[in-house]
Write a structure and sequence with these properties.
It holds the Pfam family Exosortase_EpsH. The chain is α+β, with helices and mostly antiparallel strands. The protein folds into three domains: about 30-165 and about 330-355, no CATH class; about 165-305, no CATH class; about 375-525. Helices cover about 60% and strands about 15% of the residues. It contains 19 helices and eleven strands. It has helices spanning about 1-25, 25-50, 55-65, 70-90, 100-120, 125-140, 145-150, 155-160, 165-190, 215, 220-235, 240-270, 275-305, 315-320, 330-355, 385-390, 425-430, 480-490, 510-525, and strands at about 195-200, 200-205, 210, 375-380, 395-405, 405-415, 435-445, 450-460, 465-470, 475, 495-505. The strands form two sheets. Strands 4, 5, 6, 7, 8, 9, 10 and 11 form an eight-stranded antiparallel sheet that branches. Strand 7 and strand 8 (about 450-460) form a beta hairpin. Helix 2 (about 25-50) packs parallel to helix 15 (about 330-355), helix 3 (about 55-65) crosses helix 6 and helix 5 (about 100-120) runs antiparallel to helix 6. The protein is globular. The termini are far apart.
């Protein structure tokens, strides 16, 4: 009996082990286990991406919240609405399934690397935001079909262009464009016997100067033109090909070429023919005509290209097949987990390698005092000013003063770190002070062999005025873009930002006298 009971227990034990082994090796159990790991991996990837791009996301959110960017919010909303309408109207089925693909992996990896380099070497937020969107576009390619990913390129490009970045574009892209335009205009005028010289974005003809400023850079026309060309490609359903790229290059050349023609015409009217009033009338008219003609040229190039995207029968059959429902298979989910682990390694490595541009310390104990004959005192900064200067390690001081019967306030910012200084117009915008119009003045006087440029601002309907410039031991400019590029090329050179706000307006003679006095005073401090 005991022997029989022992055999029975042994049989039961063996049967339990077999059942347990079968249960463990059941494909459904294995699939559930790998599916849980797959979902967890996706959550980790999403959290890691948010953590990597957190500073950039916060910056973009801050830009969107400003009142002047409401147009961009509307534009992005319309773009999203068009995408949704396109999906619904064509009854497209969006099936999301994760799979590593070569081209999206290249876009994703290169986007991460360039993002890290930009954060470390330049710290330019607009480039970081653009690279973030490019990286996310590559990440999207892991979840959608190759054809859908390719079609998403145009909406993504429009999204980048519709973000509120054009105010920053003149600083980083508009300045080189203005230098190029001024140089081309000089060569063209010289070929017709007009003796012309250029100093950065200033064209000099017989001791008279023309400033190639933001309104003449052609950057806004180029920005609007790119939106037009990409949007036209999208609604015309043109395929992205070499001919499309050649058309885009020709379209950009047309925009830039017309802008150079406008600059040449304005310089010829103003400085050569002495017709400044006619030049003022022609300024806007030539800009509009050039943009309209360029858009017509771009539309013609688009019509010359091939028509709608043709899908081969093989591709069409692949697109119309129902989604693969075999995700519960152990092998596929297991491979997806390994692929997600690779993406997670790339993102985690980027997080550990992430190092933003270090804030250079301001020059200790270096403070620009008012000239001795100025009747003034040092005052506290407004909270918004103090936060900016503190966050960028700036050595800044603010005075209220009286000079020759005029009352005003003055800010000196002494630093070799270009981010410690800023475009003073942003201060007025942030304080709801209206900038009615602005102009660049080139002042020539005995205190320097070369003219000194200042940016003059007409504020609050004439109740106030202001001007500013940037000054180093070797250079002087009213162009913040020039200051930024100099900071990249010669990071050890000290600069002083001078920003003055007045109650009322100064006469031309008083402006020249004040600028000369302050300029000479700062020059003696280096």
């Amino acid at each position: 009996m005991m022997m029989q009971a022992s055999l029975t227990e042994q049989c039961i034990s063996t049967s339990c082990q077999q059942v347990e082994q079968q249960l463990v090796e059941t494909p459904l159990v294995a699939a559930v286990r790998w599916n849980a790991a797959f979902i967890l991996s996706q959550l980790l990837v999403a959290i890691s991406l948010i953590y990597l791009f957190k500073p950039t996301l916060l910056w973009v959110w801050g830009q969107i919240q400003t009142a002047e960017n409401s147009f961009h919010i509307i534009g992005v909303g319309l773009l999203v609405g068009l995408v949704i309408h396109s999906v619904v109207a064509k009854k497209r089925q969006l099936t999301l399934s994760f799979q590593i693909k070569k081209l999206p992996l290249v876009v994703f990896t290169v986007g991460c690397l360039i993002f890290l380099l930009n954060e470390r070497l330049t710290g330019i937020h607009i480039f970081s935001a653009t690279l973030m969107l490019i990286t996310l576009y590559g990440f999207l390619g892991f979840y959608v079909k190759a054809t859908s990913w390719a079609k998403a390129f145009l909406p993504f490009a429009l999204l980048i262009l519709l973000l509120p970045f054009e105010g920053y574009l003149d600083i980083y892209l508009g300045f080189p464009l203005r230098l190029f335009s001024a140089e081309m205009a000089k060569h063209f005028l010289s070929s017709f016997g007009v003796s012309a010289l250029t100093s950065e974005s200033v064209i000099l003809v017989e001791n008279k100067a023309a400033i190639v400023d933001l309104s003449c850079s052609g950057l806004k026309g180029l920005w609007a033109g790119l939106i037009f060309y990409i949007f036209l490609t999208w609604i015309e359903s043109n395929k992205l090909s070499l001919s499309w790229l050649i058309g885009l290059v020709l379209f950009i050349c047309c925009l830039v070429g017309f802008n150079i023609f406008r600059i040449i015409s304005l310089v010829a009217l103003d400085l050569v023919l002495n017709l400044p009033q006619l030049a003022n009338y022609a300024h806007t008219m030539l800009g509009v005509l050039g943009f309209v003609f360029s858009c017509l040229f771009g539309w013609l190039l688009m019509r010359l290209q091939s028509g709608n995207i043709q899908i081969s029968p093989k591709q069409e059959s692949m697109n119309t097949n129902p989604p693969n429902l075999s995700l519960i298979s152990k092998g596929l989910i297991k491979n997806d987990c390994y692929s997600l682990a690779l993406i997670l390694i790339i993102i985690t490595g980027s997080i550990f390698l992430y190092e933003p541009l270090p804030k250079q310390q301001s020059m200790a104990n270096k403070k620009i005092e008012l000239p001795v004959d100025f009747n003034g005192k040092e005052v506290a900064f407004l909270p918004i000013e103090e936060n900016f200067f503190k966050s960028n390690s700036a050595n800044a001081v603010k005075y209220q003063f009286e000079w020759s019967g005029y009352q005003g306030s003055l800010i000196f910012v002494y630093s070799h770190y270009w981010k410690s200084q800023h475009d003073p117009r942003n201060c007025y915008f942030s304080q709801n002070i209206t900038v009615d119009y602005e102009k660049t003045l080139s002042l020539s006087a005995e205190y320097d062999s070369k003219p000194v440029e200042i940016k003059y601002l007409h504020l609050n309907g004439g109740q106030n005025s202001g001007f500013y410039w940037f000054q180093s031991p070797t250079k002087k400019t009213a162009d913040y873009s020039s200051r930024v590029f100099s900071g990249w090329l010669t990071p050890s050179e000290p600069w002083v930002m001078v920003s003055v706000a007045w109650e009322g307006e100064l006469s031309a003679l008083a402006t020249e006298k004040f600028v000369g006095q302050v300029y000479s005073h700062i020059k003696s401090q280096f």
